[in-house]
Specification:
The protein is mostly beta strands. 11% of the residues lie in helices and 61% in strands. It has one domain (2-99). The mean pLDDT is 95.
Length: 101
């Protein structure tokens, strides 16, 4: 899947918001797609430019470092490799990234 890469986030910690400690992980890639108009029934919303989207990525420091090296050079078109999420086979996560050819 080719996208225009903006950046990524990788983190983990323990939330104590609810009183009971609960571990969490954050891992996603942000990219942009061309904005699309929304026209349906009485709704007519025009859009131009780009819309920011995100997709989950594998919680992997090596993958994050690869994305960071690309993103730190500036906005770039990349090829994302998607694989089934081992925790939810109904969705995909990014497992690799490389500059688009």
């Amino acid at each position: 899947m080719k996208v225009i890469l903006l950046g990524a986030m990788l983190g983990k910690g323990v939330s104590t918001k609810s009183g009971q400690p609960k571990p969490y992980e954050l891992n996603s890639i942000e990219y942009v797609v061309p904005s699309k108009d929304y026209i349906q029934g009485d709704h007519n919303i025009q859009k131009c430019g780009f819309t920011v989207k995100s997709v989950q990525m594998a919680h992997d420091q090596t993958l994050y470092n690869k994305v960071a090296n690309i993103a730190n050079e500036g906005i770039a078109e990349v090829e994302l490799t998607l694989s089934p999420d081992p925790e939810n086979m109904a969705r995909n996560i990014v497992t690799d990234v490389r500059l688009a050819k």
